[in-house]
Amino acid sequence: MENPSETRTILVIHGPNLNMLGKREPEVYGKDTLEDIDAGLKEAGRHLGVVVETFQSNHEGVIVEKIQEIMTTHQGLIINPGAYTHTSVAIRDALLLLNFPIVEVHLSNIYKREPFRHHSMVAGVATGQISGLGMQGYFLALEYTSSCINLRFSNKLKF
Ligand code: DQA
Asked: What residues line ligand 1, using a CB cutoff of 6 Å?
């Protein structure tokens, strides 16, 4: 089995309704499908020297369990919690288990939208947030998390 201390694996979690990208309000979320985004992230990961895994669920508890599972197996998390961003104390609490970089991504700029979207339960426990840059936000988050991991492996960064 691969030594967990040598893996460089980043998980990307997409929350509820993000499986409908491409069909869902394309004027807000763009025309790319989730499959397009995930394939692009895996390919980009290969160039950046990391393994990218992707996961989508419409269920809060399933997302919580997935976060719990990666405590010792992964080294970075990119998460778009969808509507759970604004409501989920459970996802926020699960993220506190993780000891590595977490980037919260939103395709739309949540601060330009309805007031109920302006508050993120997750922002206070994430390393940082990217909001409003469309699918490019995921790629920028991947560049950041992979550079943290690669720096850590060259002993230039501790986390
Ligand atoms: C979203 C923004 C949320 O407010 C919304 O509920 C989503 C998608 C985004 O990516 O812009 O499902 O997280």
From this structure: 17, 80, 82-83, 85, 106-108, 110, 117
Phi, psi of 152 (to 5 degrees): -65, -40
Whether the model pTM is above 0.90 = yes
Measuring CA to CA, which residue among 144, 133, 16 is closest to residue 80? 16
Q: Which of the residues 14, 29, 84, 138 is marked catalytic?
A: 29
Residue 93 lies in a domain: yes
CATH of the domain at 90: 3.40.50.9100
**Is residue 117 in a domain?**
yes
Higher pLDDT among residues 4 and 74, named by residue? 74
Q: Cα-Cα-Cα-Cα dihedral of 49, 55, 60, 62, to 10°?
A: -100
Distance in angstroms (rounded) separating the CA atoms of residues 11 and 9:
7
Which pLDDT score is estimated for 124? 98
Find, among 103, 94, 19, the residue nearest to 64 by Cα: 94
Residue 158 resides in a domain: no
